[in-house]
Specification:
By secondary structure, the chain is an alpha/beta fold. The chain has 10 helices and 8 strands. Helix 2 links the parallel strand 2 and strand 3 (60-64). It is globular, with a radius of gyration of 17 Å. Residues 96, 132, 157-158 line the site of one zinc ion (ZN). One zinc ion (ZN) binds next to loops.
Length: 270
Amino acid sequence: MISPVLFATHAHLHFPDFTDDLDAVLERARAAGLRGMVTIGTDRDSNRATVAMAERVPDVWASVGIHPHDAGEATDEDFAEMERLARSPRVVGLGEMGLDFFRDLSPRDTQARVFRRQLDMARAVGKPVVIHCRDAHPEALAILGEARVGEIGGVMHCFSADIPVARRCLDLGLTISLAGPVTYKNARALPDVARFVPIDRLVVETDCPYLTPTPHRGKRNEPAYVALTAAHVAALRGVDVETLGEVTTANAARLFRLPLPPLPLGKRAG
Ligand SMILES: [Zn+2]
Ligand SMILES: [Zn+2]
């Protein structure tokens, strides 16, 4: 059986959840067809860990950022270190960054300030942004528009809204990333979004260890399970998973400006 080619655009492989069995997790990801993964930083310590992992593992790249949950604690030194790490050749994006008005773990004005500062940094460094947005789409889209994010490039990770919001993200020049929730029974507007987004603007992710897709919901998530999300999205769109996998992998490579090695023979879809 030939597994589809896939790329996991958003994982937290450096989290303690994976300390005990990371090698086995990575092997299962490769066996599931993953050509690469991006492990995403959320604060000072986790940014260091992402870059250290990407320097060690050739098919894991890093993104460094300050999550809105952690915005209230970020110091000027943290920003300086983030910018230094962001210039590493193993770092392919900045984030996750954004607004989270669902959990509100940092004051909202601080979240907005920290978000804008990272968008400016991404422009200076010349790398795309990974955006986290929960229950704050009008505010986040306004900030992204002011920052002219289309010139920077970026992805709306774990897209959680509806078609009108998806349309505005596309108009801003963003790529849209779908995660495990599109497979859930109460997926709300996500199946419609999965059908609506043009295939060249779509990527898939796990956000592991969180948001495990059906039928593993409730257990730890891992990059190999991006195959389940991809298969679900392919079925919603009425295309085969090989095609969806190949196109979304190419989209991820373009988004993160990654030179992926050529496919081995027999792994090319159609
Ligand atoms: Zn997130
Ligand atoms: Zn995340």
